[in-house]
Structure formats: structure tokens, C-alpha cells
Amino acid sequence: MAVLYHHPLDPHSRFVRLIMGELQMEAELVEENVFERRREFLALNPAGTIPVLVEPDGQVVPGANVIAEYLDETRGLALADRRLLPEDPSGRVEVRRMLNWFHVKFYMEVGEPLLNEKLFKRHATNGAATAPDPGILRAARSNLRYHLHYLGHILHQHNWIAGDRLTYADLAAAAQLSAIDYLGEVDWSADETAKLWYAKLKSRPAFRTLLGDRIRGLLPAGHYTDLDF
Amino acid sequence: MAVLYHHPLDPHSRFVRLIMGELQMEAELVEENVFERRREFLALNPAGTIPVLVEPDGQVVPGANVIAEYLDETRGLALADRRLLPEDPSGRVEVRRMLNWFHVKFYMEVGEPLLNEKLFKRHATNGAATAPDPGILRAARSNLRYHLHYLGHILHQHNWIAGDRLTYADLAAAAQLSAIDYLGEVDWSADETAKLWYAKLKSRPAFRTLLGDRIRGLLPAGHYTDLDF
After folding, report:
1. Predicted structure pTM score
2. Residue A220 lies in a domain
């Protein structure tokens, strides 16, 4: 069986888990604390980042975007008209543009600061208590409002983020949002269109694994597993 | 003719210029100062980042990696056995892994701090003089030594970064190094293997456009255009 090195609340790992869910691909999940800089893990991926997929034949695939392209090339065609990366160059540009939007811009402006302050800081300091920085939290929350409205704006134009069908772009956005939704950071009342889109995604079988995640010492927000919010 | 919005010393833009050179694809180069947040430019790419490629038919392609995939899909096949992204899934993983290595890790640890401190700070503050932070320069230079040795280590195993032929990985690495080489920041004597590889790349016709760049008020290092260093 394939192995995925991940962290339950890492949005990029969650993105890959959603892809594997859509592909109905089984993999053993191994939790990796990247702050430990484990020698065996660095041998797999010298960049020291998660997620990393290891195939049964030993093929190592590091990085969310690299894994997404790889899974599309090796298994994506089997999804036929439900393929998560469109066939035409223009559609592929749009999906990849939105992937970058969520994996880079959204993550840097919203996900990373919130997750760092509320959770990863603890990993990095080996459990030493460090209080979240209120200025960083405030800035990230303000960025989140802007991003939710942009998402709503896009979803007014078409049913899914990159057009009229589900693609990697939706999975990337949902993965990012789901991680901070666990922290209770998403005010879904701020944008009804975004909320309806997220409810659709949350009801997909692929999402179930994410909803079952529990972090020690950090319970999810009350509505986290509620499919109707 | 296609248009590329870029900055002469932005490594990600340079990567795309190298690809276009290898494809013998002509494009008009338009210099974009992203710190101005020009309304017309944000309409092309809401993320506000360079490079952005605009095709004669109006297709907008934002982001270095997205452009690389797009150019491979639309023009790359014409290169036949000199195609810059290999055909096999495993080869593609390695090229994309190294692309991320240079575009994300190298850029964050070396290129961005050096370019910010020595050049972009000036753009961001609208020309106001701000001295480089010596601590940031020192850390970036120390990271560069580590990266040069890793590059040399890889190039001991095969002639090119991702295997036995030139790929996007080499162009990404060369683009990153060329930008800080302009600043005189690369001590090529630190790794002979890396130096020989860079000399090979520098001699390619695709590289000529980069060697002709001149930034107002900032002359390139003496060896910048010297094909034999």
C-alpha cells in the first residue's frame, strides 16, 4: 500500500487526502512532525516538508502540487469526465492558477499564521507553552474575510472554483478552509455562496477522513463535523 | 506577439525567459513593478505577482510554474527529445521536485532576501534609500553556500540537475543563480562542479537575453557576462 507522510491539520496534506479520497485510493497515513527533522524523513524529502507520498514500488513523490500532477498522470484518467485536472490547456491554467492562489497566497496570508500561532508553535518549541500573538491572529482573520468574499465572488460566476465541474482547485480551497475551520476560525455566515459550496464538498465521501481527525489537546469547533453546519 | 510581464532581476521571470529562449518563442517583455499594484495588472493577475504571460489570443497565464506547464503542453512537444519536461511520471516528479526546490526553498532562503535587501526594498519604498540589513545578508549568504554544495552534490551524480538531459530544473536553478550573480553574490570558486554546469548554461543562446539586462543604478558584477568566468 502507498504511504502518505502528513500532519492531520496541514492543509497541503489534507488536499492530497481529498484527492486520494476522490480517486478511491488507499494509503497508510503516517503522521510526521517536520520540526523534528527526522533523518529518515529528510532522506525521503531533503526539503523536509510534508506531504510526501511513497508508492509501493518505492517511488517518492514530495510536495502537494507535485503529488497532484503525479496522481493525475498515473490515475486521473480513470476518472474520465470526473477527472480533477481538465484536458484543455486553458482549463488547466485556471485550475493551476487557483491551486497556487490557495496553496501560496491563502496559506501565507491566512492558514499558516493561524495554524502556527494556535498549534504548530507548540510542535516547534517541543510543547513549551507559547501564547498566540494577537496582532498576527488579527491580521490573518482580516485577510480571511477578504479571501471568503473573493471565493464567493468566483462561485457566483460558476458552480465550482475553476468552472462548471469539481477540480483540484476546489479540493485545495476546501483543504485550506477545513484546517482553520477545525480551529473555529471560519465565520461561514460572512458569505452564503461560499458556505453552500463548502457544504457540498463536506458531504462528499472523500471528506469523511478529514472530519474524523482529532488533535490531542485541541478539540474541533462545534460545527466542524456538522454536514449542514 | 505574446507579452511577458516581468522584472529583469526577478528569478521566476528569468526562468520563463529561459524557457522561451529554448523554445525560440518571441515575446514582448514588459517590465512590471508589482509594488505599484497597477489596476490593469491586477485585472490580469489578481495575485499581483510576476511573471504573467499573455498570449496573442488573450489567454492569460500567471505564475512561473503554471507558465512552464502551459508552455510544455502547448509548445514543448515540438522539442521532441529535447523536451524540457520528461515523458515518464518518475522523471516528471524529479523535475517538479527540483523546480519547487529552487522556486520555493532556494528563493526564500537565498534569492528573495538578497534581492529584497539590495534592490526591491527600493522599489517598495518608492526609491527612498534603505540600507541592506547586514544580519539578513549574512544569513542568506550562509544559506547560499549550503545550496551551492547541494547543487554540486547532485551534479556529481548526473550531468544535469534532474538526470542526463537539460530540463526545467536546470533552467529554474540557473535563473535563480543568475539573478544573484548579477549582484555579485555567487562565489563560484566554492564548487567547481556547479561552476562548470553554470558555464554550460550561460553559453546557451537562450541565456543571451539575461546577460544583456542592466538595472538603472546597479551595474552587474564584473564576471556576469563572461562566458568563461
Report:
1. 0.95
2. no
Instruction: State whether A101 and A175 are in the same domain.
Output: yes
Cα–Cα distances (Å) from B78 to B3, B71, B154, in that order, read 21, 11, 28
Contact A74 B63 (CB under 8 A): no
Closest Cα in chain B to A44: B97
Q: How many domains does chain A have?
A: 2
Q: What is the DSSP letter of A165?
A: S
- Choose among B70, B97, B100: nearest Cβ to A89: B70
The 8-class DSSP code of residue A216 comes to: T
Q: What is the pLDDT of residues A23-81, one digit of tens each?
A: 999 999 999 999 999 999 999 999 999 999 999 999 999 999 999 999 999 999 888 88
* Predicted ipTM of the assembly: 0.93
Identify the burial level of B112 via C-beta atoms within 10 angstroms of its C-beta, where 0-12 means exposed, 13-18 middle and 19 or more buried: middle
CA angle A37, A43, A48 (to 5 degrees): 40
Residue B223: CA count within 13 A, CB half-sphere: 16
A60-62 and A52-54: which strand pairing?
antiparallel
Same domain, A175 and A153: yes
pLDDT above 70: residue B180? yes
**Would you state the cell numbers that stand for residue A115, as one nine-digit string?**
495554524
Domain range spanning residue A152? 89-211
